[in-house]
Amino acid sequence: MTNGFFLGGLAQGMETAERGLRADRELDRRDQEVQAELLQRADTTIKEHQALIAEMVQGTLDNGGTREQARKSVQPLIDRMLSLAGKVGRDPNVALAPVLAALQAPTAQEAAEAKGVATAQSRVAQRDALLAADVPKDQAETAAGLRSRLDPFTQALVEALTGRQGSSDAAPPAEFATDQELAAALADGRIQPGDPVVVNGVPGKAGQK
Questions:
Q1: Which letter, b or e, does each residue of 21-45 get, where b requires 16 or more Cβ atoms within 10 Å of its Cβ?
Q2: Domain range spanning residue 180?
Q3: Is the pLDDT of residue 4 over 80?
């Protein structure tokens, strides 16, 4: 005959074991929640570092700094970010990718040079198209903006592309039959004040008596 005391003790033991299992499962669940929260915080911190680094790099480049100067200025932040990524099991190369992209952005000088190249090529192409349409050379260059004052870098490119030497003043002066035609050219931007002109056979400079 089964002992009632024994059965009661067994039931109590099983209940205690079940309570222990439930407690363990609850601890595991809370541990997972804490781990997920910590990982989320780490990811947020990494993204904040990436954004700050990119902003600082761009600021250095925009103000005339070199990529090496930009890299040195953010190296402590990079080190901290990579250390955090390693601690939480994130791939450091993935964390570093936006930083490397930021460091490859054009410097202020490179951006200015690229803009100058585009401007020079565009104006020369426009001049060539007008010449192909039998527009006189002086009118084609004026219409394309090749007789306007350009920054030194762009002007040098224009001269290289057109085979001209020296400043834009070395181009043949624009010719006008009357002062009214000259005034109209000044008004619509075909020439600029101070550009060399010939009005009714008399050389001079636009906008000057």
A1: eeeeeeeeeeeeeeeeeeeeebeee
A2: 173-209
A3: no
Distance CA 28, CA 115 (A): 60
List, for residues 153-186, the tens digit of each pLDDT value. 666 666 666 665 434 444 567 778 777 787 777 7
Residue 131: pLDDT above 80?
yes
More confident residue, 54 or 16: 54
pTM: 0.47
Average model confidence (pLDDT) across the chain: 76
Q: How would you label 102-140 residue by residue, b for 16+ Cβ within 10 Å and e otherwise?
A: bbeeebeeeeeeeebeebbeebbebbeebeeeebeebbb
Task: Based on the fold, state whether residues 100 and 16 are members of the same structural domain.
Answer: yes
The average pLDDT across 12-35 equals 67
Domain annotation covers residue 2? no
Q: How far, rounded to the nearest angstrom, does the alpha carbon of residue 98 sit from its chain's CA centroid? A: 13
Domain contains 63 = yes
